[in-house]
Amino acid sequence: MDLIIFVALKGLNHSPTMTNEQHNKNNPGWRNREEKRCTLVGMTSDVCLSALKIVTGVLGHSSAILADGIHSISDTVTDALVYAMVRLSGKGVDERYRYGRGKYETLAAFLISIILVVVALGLMTEGVQDVWAALQGETLQRPHNIALIVGLIAVMVKEGLYQYTRLKGKKTGSSALKAYAWHHRADALSTAATLLGVAGAMFLGERWRVLDPIAAVAVSVLILVLAYRLGRPAVEELLEVSLSQDEQDKISSIVTATPGVKAFHNLRTRRNGSLRVVDIHVKVDGDLTVNRSHEITRQIERQLTEALGEVMTNIHVEPYHGTNDCEKAHGVQPNSVETQNLASPTRE
Q: pLDDT class for 160, splitting at 50, 70, 90?
């Protein structure tokens, strides 16, 4: 008797143990609204900051602030990218996208990491050139006080956006928002480096104006590290690397403890945006009815959703005999666990 049950769980509000926060997190419509709202807040802030920095750079005779303002224009491009990806990922399942559009979130995170790499390399190149020019005796112009004030405002706004977006990303489980938050933090660090150079140029004299490009080079290295931390998980998800070993162990424990399950094998896991996809073969008593087998799989699905969040399960039910070649090959005994993981590496 073979039974294949394919169920997409988008949140089980009938579960008595599921909190309101868990239910909201498993609700794609709520998640998508939160993502779009958060992205619009960032987009509006970046447009205002870009205009403020450019005007200040021109009027305050600060080439550093002006350059930072021009760089901030790229932030609005990132904002538009994230917003477009979030809208696409929120369209859900249809005939063409049977697993949903969660990979758009992952793609957005990957593209943000690429943007950070480009920005970091640009800042590093410009900083090295300015350091070399300073070593050759070139004198940098002293900026106006307003440049320092605007720089402080920009750092505080960007750090506030980082904290706000990070909390939203944690609350919704959105990889796109988590990457977007680190992009705000990278901007805050970049502006802080500019601010340090402006302050040095204003208060420490001409010989210390080289602090601006030196700080920019240091921050560019940090941004490269952030880009790697964002890009690696996104690449792993696009390549469909398995869930972490802790999550796989949790799945194994849940399936093993489910009444009626004799053994399981062919456990395959991956992520699709915030969605976890679990494929598994479970072995039950061959004399069980189809209804009883279905109830066992439903119980597994409920427990996986409560433990992991939004889950899509593909459960294949097989009769347990304890004597066939497959069971002997894996040493399966009654009430034991038979697992066969994917050949791909496990997410660390």
A: very high
User: What is the pTM for the complete model shown?
Assistant: 0.61
Neighbouring residues of 15: CB distance < 8 A, sequence distance ≥ 6: 302, 305, 306
pLDDT digits (tens, 9 = 90+) for 68-123: 776 676 677 667 777 776 676 666 676 777 777 777 778 877 887 888 788 778 87
What number is the average pLDDT over the span 324-334?
46
Beta bridge partners of 283: 263, 318
Distance set, CA 333 to CA 123, 235, 321, 324, 339 (Å): 61, 38, 10, 11, 12
Average pLDDT over residues 132-140: 76
Domains with residue ranges and CATH for the chain: 20-238 (1.20.1510.10), 242-329 (3.30.70.1350)
Alpha helices in 28-62 (DSSP H): 28-59
What is the tens place of the pLDDT at every residue in 283-293?
998 889 999 99
Tell me how far apart the alpha carbons of residues 187 and 72 are, in angstroms, rounded to a whole number: 8
Contacts for 300 with CB less than 8 Å, ≥ 6 apart: 254, 255, 258, 261, 282, 313, 315
User: What is the band of 255 on the pLDDT scale with cuts at 50, 70, 90?
Assistant: very high
The rounded distance, in Å, linking the Cα atoms of 312 and 277 is 5
List % helix, strand, coil for the chain (3-state, nearest 5). Answer: 65, 10, 25
Q: Which amino acid is at 69?
A: G
Q: Quote the distance between the C-alpha of residue 6 and its chain's center.
A: 27
- The DSSP output letter for 207 is G
Return the structure tokens found at 330: 């894996």
* β-bridge mates for residue 1, sequence order: none
Q: Round to whole Å and give the CA distance between 201 and 199.
A: 5
How many Å from the N-terminal Cα to the C-terminal Cα in the chain? 37
Task: Return the beta strands (E) in the chain as ranges.
Answer: 3-9, 261-272, 275-285, 311-320
